[in-house]
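Dear Dr. H.,

I hope your travels went smoothly. While you were away I took the liberty of generating a structure for the chain from your last submission, since the lab meeting agenda had it listed for discussion. I wanted you to have the full record in hand beforehand rather than looking at slides cold. The sequence, exactly as received, is reproduced here:
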Amino acid sequence: MRIYKVGGAVRDRLLGLPVTDIDRVVVGATTEEMLAQGYRPVGADFPVFLHPKSGEEYALARTERKSGRGYGGFTFHASPEVTLEEDLIRRDLTINAMAEDDQQNLTDPYHGQRDLQARVLRHVSPAFAEDPLRVLRVARFAARYAGLGFTVAPETLELMRQLSESGELQALTAERSWKEISRALMENQPQVFIEVLRSCGALKVLMPEVDALFGVPQPEAHHPEIDTGVHTLSVLQQAAAHKQPLTVRWACLLHDLGKGLTPEEEWPRHIAHEFKGLKLIKAVNERFKAPRDCQELALLVGEYHTHGHRALELKPSTLLELLQSFDVYRRPQRFEEFIAACEMDARGRKGLEERSYPQADYLRGAANAARSVAVQPLLEKGFKGPELGEAIKRERLKALKAYKENA
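The corresponding predicted structure, in token form, is as follows:
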């Protein structure tokens, strides 16, 4: 029995990055031998065991063979005869197909270290094209390591293009796709994830609503970058630069989908794109079964982001409707995330990345003014039921009028 660290632990150590997850592969062992040493089996798909003391995962060396469609369409074979090289060749990228023993002796049969130095993301073998999830994984790695100068090898991009055209991407489950998408959006340069998906044709398959934004112009006075797709990538880049949470990043990606529906004869204006985009945002939300908080914020940002930009001009009644829509009284955090998404939208424009956004503090002040209305005095005056609701609304409107006059 020989045990090796594999994959990300080896890759990140060689890059000088913090090692968080450690995967281990066991060569020359049987399931019975692992059980006899106290390892606990987990997972039904292939032989993975938990260490009896540390609880860390150890997987038996295995080979795999394509047996069906999609991410799960594989037959695995694990036995003591499977070599380390055979286990490594089934992995996605050369930089993930290295192993080392406890003395840090490197096993690198597919030249992963060379590709690390060349800053190239390259597939290990033609079997790469058997797993459609790898299209998303490679794009995610591109987003993670873009800051270090990594790019996708042309021949790997070609395999990704073939996968995108094969129909295999449609076999991916919503859960697996969302796991990769959400992780990619939380990388330092999530816009690279979208760029890579687009360059291999996968964006058109997975998110045609986002892909449709490229080549759609906007008024240059407000959008010096002009192209709506480029703007979306810039907004996403700003969200990452400002360390925004996943909910905000997801909303930033989807906020302008309605502009993809504007007839060419109306370009570069996009009248009512906020409302037109809602059905598209809903469709993308449902396709990937995004978490509820991501779904809700994306829809609200899509509908109201232009309200955010025009906050200083809004009538008190419109401002009150906006606050009510977000339920700022019980869910203040969601409104904060809306403000953040609006600010990222304003900054995601060529040459305007450092612009101030006074609307943010104005909206926060408005929310505080509305929240400051006390309910108890109205109850003491005898208001109840629907009448109480109307009385609260009147008082909040009065508070917002006073706030606007003094702002």
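Two observations you may find useful: The chain has a mean pLDDT of 94. The first strand starts at residue 2 and ends at 6.

With kind regards,
E. W.
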